[in-house]
Design brief:
Helix content is 76%, strand content 0%. It is mostly helical. The chain has a single domain (30-170), classed as Up-down Bundle (de novo design (two linked rop proteins)). The model has no long low-confidence stretch (mean pLDDT 81).
Length: 194
Amino acid sequence: MRIFLGILAAVVIIVGVWIFSQINTIPKQDEAANAAWSQVLNQYQRRADLVPNLVATVKGYAAHEEKVLTEVTNARARVGQVAAPDPNDPKAVEQYQAAQRELGGALSRLLVVAENYPQLKANENFLTLQSQLEGTENRISVARRDYIQAVQAYNTTLRTFPGRLVASLFYSDAKPRPNFTADAGAEKAPQVQF
């Protein structure tokens, strides 16, 4: 009987230590998701900072393309007006993403306009800005991927054992986070026309 009680006590202690070792997993993953979200916002800010320089460079060559330049400037201004959203608020995240999509579309139109100006395409400032903008778009994609992975790890922990148990005992306010979603129609290849 003493052996049985000793084994039972050892199992209880081991399980208890294991569960308590899991207590820090949820806050660590929550902070990782917050950090990943901050990196997404950082890359969006980098893009927003590059836009005025790109517009000014193009404006010098394509003064009569005022409509596209105005669209880009207005889209960038709208992005600046939308506050960085709480990543736990799906509606705020969607509003922020919509402003970013609008800016991305305006930038695409601007780059198409730039293709019509051979002197602009050869301009060193324009090429540098275009390269930086392309790099920024890639960084945004990587930051989104990292955020998606951090949210996946966090949400999985909240929904599986022992994380579910730990969350119910110690972090009752912990809720699954919303994730990025693809734009409607993103599954279709864009049509390129010349």
